[in-house]
Target: 5-bromo-4-chloroindolyl phosphate hydrolysis family protein
Amino acid sequence: MRGLFGNDWNWIVAGLVSAALLVGLSTLTHFPFLVSVVISALVFAGLIFVLAPRQLFEGLDLRSIGGGQVAFARELLAQAQPAADRLAAAAGSIADKDMKAKVKNLSDIATDVISKVEAKPASAASVRRFLTYYVPQAAEVAEGYATLADRRAPSQQRLATIGAVITKLQDAFVHYADSQADSELGTLDVDLRLIQESLKEDIGR
Model:
């Protein structure tokens, strides 16, 4: 998933590609220079649009969502996304296959929860502690494990201690992911009850 928060990488890539295209068109294919400039400019503009980082809550009708909910979710995601990125990077730097899989699982759960909050800002309250505490702490622990394991003679006791914490963090991550799902099921329960009442009124069943 592309980062939730914008940067200028799309401008850099577009500039490099269009500059290379301009040189190639004007020197290798012998296009008229003015035509090459126009084509390169069009390619530059197109790449800026295509490569633009996606924005938070892109595609949602924010007018139908409470402004307070959106602001709250935005604040939580601003804290959680960088930590989730660090967690993913830590997973990639760990050599031990078992620990790499555990940290990657944490990263996958964090990414999934963040995606669900972005899709449904109202769910942010149920995972506030997860986003603001557990994800950053998990990133810190995973980075610590990766740094320690990279030593020539790491302390096996310390590695085991950190590994045990990462294992317990998996339980916490699953708990919060399930609580997010439970909050959605709570709405489903209300809907089912309303449907049952409507059916009883309309058809006597």
Remarks:
- The radius of gyration is 24 Å.
- The longest helix spans residues 156-203.
- The chain is about 75% helix and 0% strand.
- The CA atoms of residues 15 and 143 lie 35 Å apart.
